[in-house]
Amino acid sequence: MTEDRSKIVEAKTKSKWTTMFDNGIPQTYICQVAHYCMVADVEFADIAVLDLDTNVYIEFTYFRDYNLEDRIRKACVNFWENH
User: How many CB atoms lie within 10 A of CB 27?
Assistant: First the structure.
């Protein structure tokens, strides 16, 4: 049996103004990569981030959060149907 190694890779920058979640992933990127994983049906995403204040490269792995995806899906449907 072969292992499915499909994943999303997203490259970003951050600054001191970026709000971070407990897992370290910048808050503004969570919904974006969650949406990507949901649409592509991929289990995780690697997020490459360059901190512009320190010039330090940081890498995070986001694993699918089906509860978050459900909220994103509902928000997308609501937007589509009401705007």
Answer: 10
Give CA–CA dist 6/9, Å, rounded: 10
CB atoms within 10 A of CB 75: 12
**pLDDT per residue over 65-79, tens digit each?**
999 999 999 999 999
Question: Amino acid identity, residue 37?
Answer: C
* CB distance 44 to 78 below 8 Å: no
Check pLDDT > 90 for residue 39.
yes
Residue-wise pLDDT tens digits, 45-57? 999 988 888 898 9
Given a contact cutoff of 8 angstroms between Cβ atoms, the answer to whether 27 and 12 are in contact is no
* Helix or strand holding residue 34 (H, E): helix 27-40
- How many Å apart are CA 58 and CA 70, to the nearest integer? 28
